[in-house]
Amino acid sequence: MENFSREPAPAKGKTPVKYTHVAAVHPRQRTSCLSHDSEHSPSFLGFRNLMVIVLVVMNLRLVVENFMKYGVLICIGCHDYRRIDILLSTMLYALVPCHLFVAYIIELGAAQHAKGALGRLKRSDYDPNHDLFEESRAFQATWYTIAWAHGINATFCLLVTTYVVYYHIHHPMIGSICQVHAIIVWLKNCSYAFTNRDLRHAYLNPPSAATLPEIYSQCPYPRNVTISNLAYFWWAPTLVYQPVYPRSPSIRWLFVAKRLAECFALSMFIWLASAQYAAPVLRNSLDKIKTLDVASIIERLMKLSTISLIIWLAGFFAVFQSVLNALAELMRFGDREFYTDWWNSPSVGTYWRTWNKPVYHFMRRHIYSPLVGRGFSGGFASTMVFVFSGLLHELLVGIPTHNILGVAFVGMMVQLPMIYFTAPLEKMQGINGRVVGNCIFWISFCLVGQPLAALMYFFAWQAKYGSVSRLEKG
User: Fold this and answer.
1) Residue 79: what are its φ and ψ, rounded to 5°?
2) Tens digit of pLDDT for each residue in 361-392?
3) How many other C-beta atoms can be found within 10 angstroms of the C-beta atom of residue 97?
4) Residue 469: helix, strand or coil by DSSP?
């Protein structure tokens, strides 16, 4: 018997209904809750819980299957890193302050030259018709000299690191750390030079100084050209130079400890997942690639997509939430919007604008906006941004793995037609276009992008060197 005890009892003072079997259970026109013309959108919280449970159960099954098939593959002392790798990586890191000091010396000389030029402009015998033209020419000539000096200094740092990593550092992880640091410092050097160039121009043209951001008035040019100011920028979690940044009032050491603990735990998880799950899938794919078994390759890509996505998400949280927030707290860096909700991206373009804000800000400020300001179209400027980003991705992946395949570069260039294709979906009325765009983003991200690139570079590494594990070599 069904329990109808929850039916409301007749209110006091009212006559009870005598004919209960004739109650109108269909009193008005109504629609199914999943229909498009439903008055209220239902909650899908239960389905979300179901999906989480299904994902957990499926991955637990894969964990059990993996241990039954391969046993424990985790080995702390099995990686084939060499003492020379550690020594060279330490030397490369120690060389960075030298290049930053050179950048400071270059800007210090430029600041002294700007002070002299401003003094000449304030002379009583100043002729605006002649001297202003001469000072403008002198400024351009000085900027070309400074730009060349900065370019040689920053590029020399990047080239030295690239050469040493490619030819002398064997282990790809150690090489990747060195290469990432070199690229970050190179980008910071470029931003430092470009920003000080504009600040110097505003310094020599006081009417133009009014257009500078108000926050810059706390440290006007050339007072920002100091060792401490540049050292802060080196460690600050940003690629864009400013004389002044918003600062937090104090350091919360407990906050720092929590973020570092998160980073350590996620790093261990990434290492375990890579060694125990990703590596066997990659190794089992080698024969299929050699024989060009397309069906098997697609099956391996789909199998690899799950673990690669989990590893990438863990790495994203470790870097952008844990490491950058811990560094920002130590530096009292106030602007901590390192990412926004990229997982809801309704288009591929939105993803690239939201998942990595430090790089996005650099590209927009120093590449996209200057090109548009010089009369180039937004499409051309975007293409140049992705060409530049593709080259950096190839340096970041191809150099540490000692295989310049062009896969990372091509992967970045493929984003352009995908951005063009998914942009209209973002602007469509209603939610359907955004849902379709988000699905396209996730499919391209999970099944095509990362797994395919990982498979190609792993195959090239194995063909050239074999494994980085001593056990497999033995």
Assistant:
1) -75, 135
2) 999 999 999 999 999 998 899 999 999 999 99
3) 13
4) strand
Question: Per DSSP, what are the bridge partners of residue 469?
Answer: 79
Q: Which of 99, 150, 366, 393 is catalytic?
A: 393
Please give the Cα distance from 351 to 356 (Å, whole number).
Answer: 9
- Helix pair angle (378-398, 407-427), 10° resolution: 140
* Neighbour count for residue 58 (Cβ, 10 Å): 11
294-316 vs 253-273: helix crossing angle, rounded to 10: 170
3-class DSSP assignment, residue 231: helix
Q: Are residues 183 and 392 in contact, defined by beta-carbon separation less than 8 angstroms?
A: yes
Q: Which residues contact 165 (CB under 8 A, 6 or more apart)?
A: 92, 175, 178, 179, 399, 400
CB-based burial, 26-46: b 16+ in 10 Å, e otherwise: eeeeeeeeeeeeeeeeeeeee
| pLDDT tens digits along 137-177 | 666 777 788 889 988 998 898 999 999 999 988 888 888 89
pTM: 0.83
Q: Which two tokens stand for residue 273?
A: 């997942």
Contacts of 29 (CB under 8 A, 6+ apart): none
Active site residue 181: no
| Residue 381 contacts residue 444 (beta carbons within 8 Å) | no
CA 117, CA 136: separation in Å to the nearest integer? 10
